[in-house]
Amino acid sequence: EKDFKGFLIPVKDTFFKIEREDEFINKINYSFKLESIDKRYGIYYYNKFKKKWVFIGDTIDNNYSSISADYYRTGRIGVFIDNVPPEVKGRPFYYDGKFVIKAIDRGKGIDEKTIVFKSKTKSYPLEYDKDRKWLFYEGKVEKGKYLLEVSDLAGHKVSKTIEIK
Length: 165
Prior knowledge:
- The protein has about 160 residues and is an all-beta fold.
- The protein contains no helices and 15 strands.
- Strands 1, 2, 4, 5 and 8 form a 5-stranded antiparallel sheet that branches.
- A hairpin with a 4-residue loop joins strand 6 (about 60) and strand 7 (about 65-75).
């Protein structure tokens, strides 16, 4: 396999294809024994309709140097290294005290537990809409400067200063 647009690096000798592709199964466990394990490793499924690799899991067992994931489809499966941090794109949308900004991650996904949005005096718990790729806060946000920190499940972090006027 080759590098997929620079953000996923394939782990050697981990790719295979199960024929009768796209067969729905109650649950199948994909498990790979590797020479070394890294938090950035993840198991991916190739979605031929969307024409992209989709992260399906990364349960690591250090005792056996293995990574595994449960999934409900057969087809092309492989292990990749998520090598790129998430991105916070554009300017925030702010209307009537509501705050929304776009955040994307092309690898394992945004780690919702680590999102930080704070000013010098106050912190706001942002939520993440995976479908729309939005970080948002439902309540009123005061005007001013804020620090936004977003991490992905591979451990990469991005920080951005945001001003709400």
